[in-house]
């Protein structure tokens, strides 16, 4: 080793010892003959010191040559510091430089490599390897490592085996767009990168692996929304001879273990909610249950009172913002403008204010008597001081809008504390959703998901009503994982493909390998996958998954550091049989 200790090691017990450190120069200060150097590595910072007249002349000269981010090796004696620094663990000591070697000088970095940096996003992405030297950034990757190793430890104790599945696979039309890779040896043909190892993990169940997992890269060529990465990581899992309940228990166990080891938090039992209830009470399949403010449906109390907008609406629904009766007219107007923004899209908002004196004031007093308003307030379980906010429209649209409003009110009222973790299972998702654009049914989870046996008879007659044995895990309003009980019999899988608009030939061409495997003794099986980057960002208390990825892509899917994607040589194109003209 070039060093005896790291820059985070030295304490008062090392005083008078001779040691050697290696690291990067964070900064130097030169004051009247005394020179201090902060030397950094990933373990911490140690203060080095040299003094004119005390330290040998050539050494002082060399110390004066040091610039930011020079890589140095220094030997010397540990001494007690005169002015101690209780902000860093090595703050009691300093190292008196006796020998110093510049291992590599450095150009002045394009931004400050300190906790508070002056570098903007793009610049830091371009020099990501320098950004990664910063404590705050490095700690995020350490957290990621911790989550990964805790995951492996837990799944190991449960007899899971990690198996790698291929990265060059075949494109299928289901789901998101695939990234494709041209095959030189098979001109005109392409591999696709996996959106998930779904079919492979199912095949592993047919092979008898019984409990599989993989911390695995997945690829989806989607239009990038704020916090999506074209390549991301999943904790992908599958089990045989299990029912939904077993999956829920096993992976609640995993999440419990992660919270305990990574955050030191003992999780409560994870509540469960049906998809139907989640939509009805929160207008979302991933409700944030850190706070209540559940939806209250008001059709019965508000219709046929002469207010045309409510009369015409499929659903009149509201939330009670506790303690918000103090909102002024102006505040409410602003909130109304907020729900009318295109991102939310409501046409308007009705409010009923429950004044402290017990009187009820609404924006539609013309149509509703005090009695009417009282009945509505009772339905909301509202108290003096509360503010009821009501939207109306088509069921799906208005639920979405009110979900936005509920989350916004949750933010305003400080009810969404990132240190408070509420985990939830959402169950019984619909098997299918109708896509107006392509005018056909799509699998809501994926085509390998099993319908609930009790709904099987509705599969042809009322596909919309068929529920799936599919589940999502939601933490603080974010979907962190999802999976399903699988179809494991060929005839049902064939029926499913038919429902999804595949001809038997198409189904055979794309998924024949899986259906044939089902004919060779496929066990009942089920599984789940967790968004690993997302879990890390949640544990880190951050909204951005990008921070938890060593070398992420930017919002346009570019790696600005290596400048990718990029064009390739004509020669390469020719070899691949690709003609760009
Ligand atoms: N493969 C699925 C996904 O990536 C998860 C699963 O069903 O296990 O969403």
End-to-end separation in angstroms reads 56 Å
Characterize the biggest β-sheet. Answer: 8 strands, mixed
What would you say the CATH architecture of the largest domain is? 2-Layer Sandwich
User: Number of helix segments?
Assistant: 16
Which ions and ligands are bound to the chains? aspartic acid
CATH superfamily of the largest domain: Bira Bifunctional Protein, Domain 2
CATH class of the largest domain: Alpha Beta
Provide a concise account of the structure shown:
This protein is α+β, with helices and mostly antiparallel strands and 581 residues long. The chain contains 16 helices and 22 strands.
Describe this structure in words.
With about 575 residues, the chain is of the alpha+beta class. The chain folds into three domains: about 10-105, Beta Barrel (OB fold (Dihydrolipoamide Acetyltransferase, E2P)), CATH 2.40.50; about 140-275 and about 425-550, 2-Layer Sandwich (BirA Bifunctional Protein, domain 2), CATH 3.30.930.10; about 290-410, GAD-like domain (Gyrase A, domain 2, 2-Layer Sandwich). About 30% of the residues lie in helices and about 25% in strands. It is built from 16 helices and 22 strands. The chain has helices at about 55-65, 120-125, 130, 135-155, 200-205, 245-265, 275-280, 300, 310, 330-340, 370-380, 395-410, 490-500, 505-520, 530-540, 570-575, and strands spanning about 20-30, 35-40, 45-50, 70-80, 95-105, 160, 180, 190, 210-220, 230-240, 270-275, 295, 315-320, 350-355, 360, 385-395, 425, 430-435, 440-445, 470-475, 480-485, 525-530. Strands 6-9-10-22-21-20-17-11 form an eight-stranded mixed sheet, with helices on both faces. Strands 1-2-3-5-4 form a five-stranded mixed β-barrel. The chain has a five-stranded antiparallel sheet with strand order 12-13-16-14-15. A hairpin with a 5-residue loop joins strand 14 (about 350-355) and strand 15 (about 360). It starts with 17 loop residues before the first strand and ends in a 5-residue tail after the last helix. The mean pLDDT is about 95. The protein binds aspartic acid (ASP). The site of aspartic acid has 8 residues, from strand 21 and strand 22.
């Amino acid at each position: 080793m070039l060093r005896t200790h790291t820059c985070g090691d030295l304490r008062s017990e090392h005083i008078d010892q001779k040691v050697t450190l290696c690291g990067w120069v964070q900064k130097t200060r030169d004051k009247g003959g005394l020179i201090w150097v902060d030397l950094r590595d990933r373990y911490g910072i140690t203060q080095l010191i040299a003094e004119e007249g005390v330290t040998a002349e050539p050494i002082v000269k060399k110390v004066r040559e040091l610039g930011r981010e020079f890589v140095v090796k220094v030997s010397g004696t540990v001494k007690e510091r005169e002015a101690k620094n209780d902000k860093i663990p090595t703050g009691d000591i300093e190292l008196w430089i006796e020998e110093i070697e510049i291992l590599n000088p450095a150009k002045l970095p394009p931004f400050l490599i300190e906790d508070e940096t002056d570098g903007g996003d793009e610049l830091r992405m371009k020099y990501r390897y320098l950004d990664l030297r910063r404590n705050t950034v490095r700690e995020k990757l350490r957290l990621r490592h911790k989550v990964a190793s805790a995951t492996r430890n837990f799944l190991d104790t449960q007899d899971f085996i990690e198996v790698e599945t291929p990265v060059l696979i075949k494109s299928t039309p289901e789901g998101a767009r695939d990234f494709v890779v041209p095959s030189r040896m098979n001109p005109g043909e392409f591999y696709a990168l996996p959106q998930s190892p779904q079919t492979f993990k199912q095949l592993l169940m047919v092979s008898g692996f019984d409990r599989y997992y993989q911390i695995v890269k997945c690829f989806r060529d989607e239009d990038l929304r704020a916090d999506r990465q074209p390549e991301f990581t999943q904790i992908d899992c599958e089990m045989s001879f299990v029912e939904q309940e077993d999956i829920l228990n096993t992976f609640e166990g995993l999440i419990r273990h992660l919270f305990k080891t990574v955050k030191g938090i003992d999780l409560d039992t994870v509540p469960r909610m049906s998809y139907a209830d989640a939509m009805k009470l929160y207008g979302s399949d991933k409700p944030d249950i850190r706070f209540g403010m559940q939806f209250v449906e008001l059709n019965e109390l508000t219709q046929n009172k002469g207010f045309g907008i409510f009369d015409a609406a499929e659903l009149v629904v509201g939330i009670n913002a506790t303690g918000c009766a103090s909102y002024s007219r102006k505040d409410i107007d602003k909130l109304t403008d907020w729900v009318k923004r295109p991102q939310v899209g409501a046409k308007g908002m009705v409010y009923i204010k429950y004044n402290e004196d017990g009187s009820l004031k609404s924006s539609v007093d013309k149509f509703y008597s005090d009695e009417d308003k009282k009945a509505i307030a009772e339905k909301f379980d509202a108290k003096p001081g509360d503010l009821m906010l009501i939207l109306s429209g088509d069921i799906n649209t208005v639920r979405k809008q009110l979900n936005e409003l509920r989350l916004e009110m949750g933010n305003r009222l400080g009810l969404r504390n990132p240190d408070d973790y509420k985990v939830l299972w959402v169950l019984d998702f619909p098997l299918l959703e109708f896509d107006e654009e392509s005018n056909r049914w799509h699998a809501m989870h994926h085509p390998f998901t099993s319908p609930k046996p009790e709904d099987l008879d509705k599969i042809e007659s009322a596909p919309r009503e068929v529920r799936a044995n599919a589940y999502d895990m939601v933490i603080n309003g974010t979907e962190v994982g999802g999976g399903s009980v699988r179809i494991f019999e060929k005839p049902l899988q064939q029926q499913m493909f038919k429902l999804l608009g595949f001809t038997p030939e198409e189904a055979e061409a794309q998924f024949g390998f899986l259906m044939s495997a089902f004919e060779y003794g496929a066990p009942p099986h089920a599984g789940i996958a967790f968004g690993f980057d997302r879990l890390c960002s949640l544990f880190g208390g951050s909204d951005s998954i990008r921070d938890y990825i060593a070398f992420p892509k930017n919002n346009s899917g570019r790696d600005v550091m290596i400048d990718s994607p990029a064009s390739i040589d004509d020669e390469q194109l020719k070899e691949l049989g690709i003609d760009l003209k």
